[in-house]
Amino acid sequence: MSDVVLYIACSLDGFIATPEHGLDWLPPIEQSGEDYGYRAFYDAVDAVLMGSGTYQQVLRLGPWPYADKPCWVFSRRQFTVEQPGVILTAQQPAAVVEELTRRGLKRAWLVGGGKLLTAFREEQLVTEYIISIIPILLGAGIPLFPPPQPCETLQLVESRAYASGLAQLHYRPVDNQRS
Which of 123, 128, 130, 169 is surrounded by the most beta carbons within 10 Å? Predict the structure, then answer.
């Protein structure tokens, strides 16, 4: 089976966006000149997975950044997709992971959001969590792990602190039944 890796940034208090879905709290970290391992991570993934809300947010940020990778956008509603390589799907996560495997895609990046992450976690499909903790307290917003969430034990694989104050944590599930 293809690996599914969550690689995401969140505030210290666990939010991935402001209540208005804003990301304006991220640029100070991004301006540090450090890529926090992003390029190496991106080069190591074969596909991109995201929810429709994340897709709409990415479109507002500028040119489509994933043109060199196939991308599945999960949505129950129909809308027009104009980016090449983007597949709009209403399938369950397990069916998409099976399709990734059939296509020979070994590692997929689960970009977001929280609802899609919950769906993948409920099916025990997330094989790695790489979470960058940004040193800011938003106080409110879109949670990384919206309730309810299944219980899952994780093993710390690596942690790294950066001069900017960002801390990156890399976990793998302990009780994931996939091999």
Answer: 130
- Cα separation, 151 vs 166, whole angstroms: 26
pLDDT over threshold 80, residue 179: no
Q: Tell me how far apart the alpha carbons of residues 121 and 32 are, in angstroms, rounded to a whole number.
A: 32
**CATH class of domain segment(s) 3-173:** alpha beta
Domain edges within the chain = 3-173
Burial (CB count <10 Å: 0-12, 13-18, 19+), residue 2: buried
CB 97 within 8 A of CB 132: no
Residue 6, beta-bridge partner list: 110, 129
Residue-wise pLDDT for 114-138, tens only, equals: 889 999 999 999 999 999 999 999 9
CA distances to 15, 80, 160, 165 from 44, in Å: 26, 29, 19, 25
